[in-house]
Amino acid sequence: MSYSRSNTAVGTRSHNQQSRSPSRSPRPWRRSACPTRSLEAATSTEFDEAIKASHHTGMDLVGIDVGTPVISVDGSAFFGARGHAAPRGEAAGKLWDGVLAVTSTDGFFELKRTRDRRPIID
Asked: N or C: which end of the chain has fewer CB within 10 A?
């Protein structure tokens, strides 16, 4: 199995099947391109408190009615961003300026519409 297919198998087991233990499904983990330290971290609780604290810091900025990621800029925080394809160049700057304009407006809460396609990740 290639590293890419193996990494996909690890991701599927970890996220879709909620099986995060390399000992419960060792083959894809062994074949993955993950460094040994990352594989060990999969079952470690060493960073749990720091991760929970970091998560709460972000969520406290936006409230409980949103998900992640949370972005905070100059005292304005928001959930997002979500889109179909990432804009580039001037289009990216125009979008960012608009996001900052609406999120810095007191009393502004949400814009949303139904997704009609999957995101393009590149």
From this structure: C
Hey, what are 14's tokens? 């970890």
The answer, yes or no, to whether residue 74 has pLDDT greater than 60, is yes
Specify the DSSP class assigned to residue 52. H
Look up the pTM and report it: 0.54
Question: pLDDT at position 10, please?
Answer: 67
List residues bridging with 47 in a β-sheet. Answer: none
DSSP 32-90: SS--HHHHHHTT--TTHHHHHHHHHHHHHHH-SS--S-EEEETTEEEE----SS---HH
Same domain, 37 and 54: no
Structural contact between residues 32 and 6, judged by C-beta atoms closer than 8 angstroms: yes
* Residues 64 and 28 placed together within one structural domain of the fold: no
